[in-house]
Design brief:
By secondary structure, the protein is an all-alpha fold. It has three domains: 73 residues; 161 residues, no CATH class; 101 residues. The chain contains 20 helices and no strands. The longest helix is centred in the middle third of the chain and has 24 residues. It is globular and about 75 Å long. The relative contact order is 0.07.
Length: 458
Amino acid sequence: MSREPNAKLIAVMDEAQVSNKGLAKRMQETADHRGLDLRTTHISVQRWRNGSGIRPEAASVMADVLSTKLGRRLTPADLGFFDLSQAAAPQSIEYPGTVPDVLSMLDGLTHEHADAHTPDQLIIAEPDLSSAVLSWMIARPDGIQADRPAHRRVGMRDVRAIREAAGLFMQLDFKYGGGHGHKALRHYFREDVLPLLGTSYSEKVGTALFGAAAEISQLLAWTAYDVGNHRLAHRYLTSTLRLSQAIDDRMFGARLLGNLSHQANYLGNHAQAIQLARAAVEGAKGRATPRVMALSAAMEARALSNAGDTIAAGRAMNEAERYFECADTAEDPAWIGYFNSAELMGELCHCFRDLKMRREAVDQAQRAVDSTDPKYARTLGFCRMVLAQSQLLNGELEAAVTTASLAVDGGDSLQSTRFKRYVTDFQKEVSVHAANPAVAAFNEKVHDALTRLDEDDE
């Protein structure tokens, strides 16, 4: 069967005014710099133009090369690659059917290391995703097996200790990134938390205990996501969603769906991100505090903005702000305490940036930067990078580079793959100004910061 020519790749190469040989040369140079063995030739490029398949590593390098040439971010999908016939096989969610199943799965996950980086191409089978969401939406809670015979009796003091530990690990995550505490948290969850779920407790204590365990498990998911292990993060999130379903904790379940939406959005799976965020909003109505509802609506706004739906994104942003106006009218669980006005502004400035609303993006990002407590170092770094990108959109090159430099100075100790991507994305965007002394100095600063971080990891 004859292949159709890759019209997207041909069009982008024409726009970039690059020949087959020129693209092959640039790709090979980039691959050599990264230690990749691509062996790209002009014949390879012609085959790709004719519609042949491509290795993910080669597609990623090609996208980076053409992004630099054109001065805007391109993905392999923009070049006509990784359609349904070429993409990695969708992964099964493996949504646990029973409480013993979910506890067994979580125990298994604690034996996996988060530092095994995975590509930004996680694809989840749509039927599995829909089934998991539907199960959470309509299933009745399993309930707690209270007062069963056991060698140990658990009380609220144990629950308070777990929740205090969750708070401490969350502070470390915000300050140093997910790579800092994941290993210790994984050990704590496996050795000190999971065993308690099989002991004896009252129904009240058991419900609180499962909720506290879910907080630790969610944080394990988030730290794995932050260091780039998307498969592990996704499995933790869906397993924890099932754990929250057991005790009918709709509010925390909405938080987990919001996290899943956040990850899907980050990976470019916009349709799934929208579906997950809307499930969080609809599933938590009447069961969640206004602050939690504001977070869920903000996740929907982020997904819609990244998908380019200006009208729907605007509606979701307004909804998030309306919910947040009532945030102080209800007593929130401790795990949502971090979501203050600065965090909301941080979410919304991403929306304005993605919608290319230049002035609004700059204003909102500047307010987010000014309002964010430095103890939330990663959040502050994200907001500064969004401000830098927004300033660049607004034609303010010098201001953008200055802002990005401040972000790197403040975030060079972050063990966060996500933060590194914000920085490298910005580098690609300013690469057309590589001869500018300020841009050259910024690139040198990034190189030094990454070198120091690598040395700290040794």
